[in-house]
Amino acid sequence: MKIVVLVGGGHAHLHSLSQFAKKPREDVQLVLISPAVHQYYSGMFSGFTEGVYGLDEIRIDLKQLAQKIGAAFYQDTICAIDANSRTLIGQHGETYPYDAVSFDIGSQTDSPEALRNYISPIKPNYHFPDQLIKFRKSAKPVIVGGGASGVELAFSTYAWRMRRHLSDALLFSSGALLSAQGAAVSRKIEAVARKKALPFFTDVTIEDIDATSVTTSTGTSYPQSDVLWLTGPKSPSLFEQSGMPVDRSGFLAVHETLQSLRYPEVFGAGDCVSIDRYPDLAKNGVYAVRQGPVLWGNLLNFLDGNALSPFVPQKRYVAILSTGGGEAFLTYGNWSVHGKTPWKLKQYIDKKFMTTYQTIYR
Ligand SMILES: Cc1cc2nc3c(=O)[nH]c(=O)nc-3n(C[C@H](O)[C@H](O)[C@H](O)COP(=O)(O)OP(=O)(O)OC[C@H]3O[C@@H](n4cnc5c(N)ncnc54)[C@H](O)[C@@H]3O)c2cc1C
């Protein structure tokens, strides 16, 4: 019997679990380790924030899912990897042996150390619901970060507050909104924000936060009662601290087969890895989902001594950001469209994704 350990219930691991449900292997003991019983789906975070979705719609019960398919579930946070003895170490010293292991543990928030006392942590993802329930009703909420997650949460927080006649939530971006997707996309989303009267500031960097305010690099202060810092992903410290091969930013370094550069029995997917052939690949749920089939196929190929397949990312993909009030902003490369149809499409895709996994155990 070979022990395959999945660390984290991220997107790619959900696929592995669903494939094991469809086609169990008598010779494999599948083990899932997660710090929380539930895995929360970030595609529905904006809908949850706006009040469109309830808690049970945006989460998957990993414990029930594992039990249903005959996998072992341990609620734990993996804090160290001893790759030589093929053992994982949990936060209270528990040890988990493996013949093959995969990490899909997401990323951390890239917030400055000195400001952390004033920032509401939403990562790992199981922190999100409680933090957002507190944040959206706070007196003076502030969002820092003009990328997809910052923009989406600003729109959905704003929509939730407007219905309750609460004061504005402020959005600060060090560049244009959605600048990574090009000038045309930025112009369009900023026009949508202006039309909806969402208060946002571009080309403004937040340099300091104290108990009651945020201060920009030019010295201007704005009142704050709660801050969400969404400026981009940071690697979990686990890999570097355990002496695993990592990229310059500390993400687990893997080949395009999603296999560690040094340890063939170690795999990884999603935000927590850096693929040597695609070092600049965006960290988002789209790629984490797409890596799922390659990861599970390669874990089995590795156990069976077969050749491994490469993950080949598509160059462009559809991304849909909720803008609140039953509308969304769809981008494909540098093309974009805003309105009710993208929101309907987003709801359809997100609900379908969740149903795939929830129906296994419900
Ligand atoms: C507000 C917001 C909205 C977003 N919206 C979208 C969107 O609409 N579309 C999109 O494509 N992307 C979106 N993203 C980005 C997306 O959330 C991430 O890219 C995606 O979740 C990464 O998936 P993952 O599978 O790598 O890990 P995750 O989904 O983050 O899952 C990782 C899991 O590992 C667990 N874990 C963490 N550390 C450990 C450990 N040490 N041991 C064991 N388990 C651990 C965590 O608890 C978690 O369950 C959004 C991000 C945010 C913040």
Describe the model.
The protein is an alpha/beta fold and 362 residues long. It folds into two domains: 136 residues, FAD/NAD(P)-binding domain (3-Layer(bba) Sandwich); 124 residues, FAD/NAD(P)-binding domain (3-Layer(bba) Sandwich), CATH 3.50.50.60. Helix content is 30%, strand content 26%. The strands form eight sheets. It has a five-stranded parallel β-sheet, with helices on one face. A four-stranded parallel β-sheet has the order 13-12-11-17, with helices on one face. Strands 6-7-8 form a three-stranded antiparallel β-sheet. Strand 12, helix 6 and strand 13 form a beta-alpha-beta unit. Helix 3 crosses helix 9. The longest helix has 22 residues. The mean pLDDT is 97.
Please render the helix and strand layout as text.
Blueprint: E1 2-7, H1 11-22, E2 28-34, E3 38-40, H2 45-50, E4 59-61, H3 62-69, E5 72-75, E6 78-82, E7 87-90, E8 95-97, E9 100-103, E10 108-109, H4 128-136, E11 141-144, H5 148-163, E12 170-172, H6 183-195, E13 200-201, E14 206-209, E15 213-216, E16 221-223, E17 226-229, E18 233-234, H7 238-241, E19 252-254, E20 266-268, E21 273-275, H8 285-304, E22 318-324, E23 327-332, E24 335-339, H9 340-361
Parallel strand pairs: 1-2, 1-9, 2-5, 9-20, 11-12, 11-17, 12-13, 19-21
Antiparallel strand pairs: 3-4, 6-7, 7-8, 10-18, 14-15, 15-16, 22-23, 23-24
Helix pairs in contact: 1-3, 1-8, 3-9
Flavin-adenine dinucleotide binds next to helix 1, strand 2, helix 5 and helix 8.
